[in-house]
Write a structure and sequence with these properties.
Elements: H1 5-10, H2 15-24, H3 39-47, H4 54-92, H5 100-109, H6 113-120, H7 132-179, H8 184-188, H9 192-234, H10 236-242, H11 245-283, H12 285-290, H13 294-329
Helix pairs in contact: 4-7, 4-9, 5-6, 7-9, 9-10, 9-11, 11-13
């Protein structure tokens, strides 16, 4: 039953790689990744599958970049709109006919230097009030930028989905071809339900990873770079103060993430055991009935189903704690 050398060379997945893939792809789903034996090599190999679609991925990257630019630049325009509102409110309280220079000098003469410094960086006309025409123009620009950003994100998601479907289709073909060439000893050491889970659930997790993790990774990295650059462009002092949250966020991820890694490992171990029980119950139904073992198999299913419930609840609970804590820190 061993594959011939020519068969082995023609197949893109080895027995060891199937094990590594099943141990690592589940890390992308639903929460912090669990510790894997070879996470980064497997993750890099997984993302290299995009290399077969260079043109499509180039368009995806460009569309994400455009969306990030609009999302990062829009708050700056919104800040100008806030300045128009604030300057209008302030100017409405000033005597009409005076110049901005006279108002600022009068504030300094009365000892209100902070307000004078703030007004010196603004455009206002004493007594004019809020410039609603300018305000409407700025708000329209901001709304347009957000609409364009979301449009490009939708387009990249649509294109990326087509690419991922082709990759997953080929991956299923490779796995099916390889499984049919594996020696009997490989199946003797593993439950058929566990193998079934690897070829179904884990491939679905690969699909989720390619669709969600890639977009999130690229979008988040570019957004962080853009936001930090914009922050330092506006005020490097305030930017340094805001970046204090980064070490605290890293500490939260380190503590909570480490705990959730172990829990997600338990979750997927119990998933494989439960799938094995279900597969054995269905394929061996006649034998189980003949020996009167229905009650025993039912109890075994209940125990493993309960264990999976407990493991999944704890894993999702701890992973769900990260974002609220991160938002509180920020």
């Amino acid at each position: 039953m061993k594959p011939s050398p020519s068969d082995s060379e023609s197949l893109s997945l080895s027995e060891t790689e199937i094990d590594e893939l099943s141990q690592n792809v589940t890390d992308f789903e639903g929460g912090p990744p669990r510790k894997a034996k070879a996470f980064w090599p497997s993750a890099i190999r997984l993302f290299k599958t995009f290399g077969a679609h260079p043109v499509g991925m180039s368009f995806v990257f460009v569309m994400i970049l455009i969306a990030v630019v609009f999302n990062v630049w829009a708050p700056n325009i919104l800040g100008d709109a806030m300045n128009v509102i604030f300057g209008g409110v302030v100017s409405a309280q000033m005597p009409e006919g005076a110049t901005a220079t006279q108002v600022i000098e009068g504030l300094r003469a009365s000892g209100q230097d902070q307000i004078a410094d703030m007004l010196s960086g603004m455009d206002f006309v004493p007594g004019a009030g809020i410039a609603f025409g300018e305000l409407a123009r700025l708000i329209g620009i901001v709304l347009g930028m957000y609409v364009i950003a979301q449009l490009f994100m939708w387009l990249q998601g649509r294109l990326l989905n087509d690419i991922v479907m082709k990759i997953v289709y080929q991956l299923r073909q490779d796995i099916e071809r390889k499984v049919n060439h594996l020696p009997l000893k490989y199946f003797d050491k593993r439950q058929r339900g566990d193998i079934l889970s690897r070829t179904t659930n884990d491939v679905d997790n690969v699909q989720a990873a390619l669709q969600q993790a890639f977009t999130s990774l690229v979008y988040c990295v570019l957004t962080v770079i853009g936001i930090v650059a914009m922050m330092f462009y506006l005020s490097w002092q305030m930017a340094l103060i805001a970046l204090i949250a980064l070490p605290l966020s890293a500490l939260v991820v380190g503590i909570v993430g480490t705990k959730s890694q172990k829990l997600f490992a338990d979750q997927w171990r119990h998933t494989g055991r439960l799938n094995g029980t279900i597969e054995e119950s269905f394929t061996g139904h006649e034998i189980i009935t003949a020996f009167g073992r229905q009650e025993l198999m039912g109890e075994q299913f209940g125990e493993r189903n309960e264990a999976l419930y407990e493991a999944s609840f704890k894993a999702q609970f701890y992973s769900g704690m990260i974002m609220p804590i991160m938002q509180w820190v920020n």
